[in-house]
């Protein structure tokens, strides 16, 4: 194979290696296109005041007071510190988790890792969950909603929004010019 495409076995090995590297990290992380969540397991006797989390635009440090940070490093991309948060939650089994929520500045970018020193994931393999319309900005959202509306109208054999607009304009014109005969008019 000259085109450097990995074989299914190489691909599986790369995924397995990536999974092993990610599983070995002292934290778990997930992301959407707009934000990133990190969970760090800590002993059940830890209280909020024992937790030290420092979130900056381009770096993070999180862990337990008096110990080496569990997560520390430079972020690969900028975040919005004011929109980023952390909480200490207790799981049903009594264990505790520090949950860190990072708000990405660039909402159109997948991260390969949380901090630059950590092993990377292959971002080309990320399959985004169906993005919610509410996550889109106004202009994009109205465009997508129009496309969805037009698609539904077509499926039901009804006019699309643009066709409806043309018909409304024509109807208005006919009302304003009753002397003209539109019975033979073709509408494109």
UniProtKB/TrEMBL annotation:
Entry keywords, A to Z: Cytoplasm
Entry annotated with the keyword Cytoplasm: yes
Localization annotation: Cytoplasm
Domain CS: 22-115
Ranges of compositional bias, category Basic and acidic residues: 12-22
GO terms under cellular component: cytoplasm
Domain of life of the source: Eukaryota
GO MF terms held by the record: unfolded protein binding
Region (Disordered): 1-22
GO biological process entries: protein folding
SUPFAM superfamilies, per the entry: HSP20-like chaperones (SSF49764)
One Pfam family matching this protein: CS
Purpose of the protein: Required for nuclear movement. May interact between microtubules and nuclei and/or may be involved in the generation of force used to move nuclei during interphase.
Protein name: Nuclear movement protein nudC
Organism from which the protein derives: Thermothielavioides terrestris (strain ATCC 38088 / NRRL 8126) (Thielavia terrestris)
């Amino acid at each position: 194979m000259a085109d450097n495409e990995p074989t299914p076995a190489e691909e599986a090995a790369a995924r397995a290696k990536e999974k092993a590297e990610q599983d070995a990290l002292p934290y778990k992380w997930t992301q959407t296109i707009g934000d990133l969540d990190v969970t760090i397991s800590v002993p059940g006797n830890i209280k909020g005041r024992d937790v030290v989390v420092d979130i900056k635009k381009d770096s993070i440090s999180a862990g337990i007071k008096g110990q080496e940070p569990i997560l520390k490093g430079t972020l690969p991309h900028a975040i919005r510190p004011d929109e980023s948060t952390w909480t200490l939650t207790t799981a049903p089994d009594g264990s505790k988790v520090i949950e860190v929520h990072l708000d990405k500045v660039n909402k159109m970018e997948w991260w390969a890792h949380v901090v630059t020193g950590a092993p990377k994931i292959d971002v080309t393999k990320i399959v985004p969950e169906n993005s919610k319309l509410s996550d889109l900005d106004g202009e994009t959202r109205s465009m997508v909603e129009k496309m969805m509306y037009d698609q539904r109208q077509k499926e039901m054999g009804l006019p699309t929004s643009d066709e409806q607009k043309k018909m409304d304009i024509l109807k208005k014109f006919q009302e304003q010019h009753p002397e003209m005969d539109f019975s033979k008019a073709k509408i494109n």
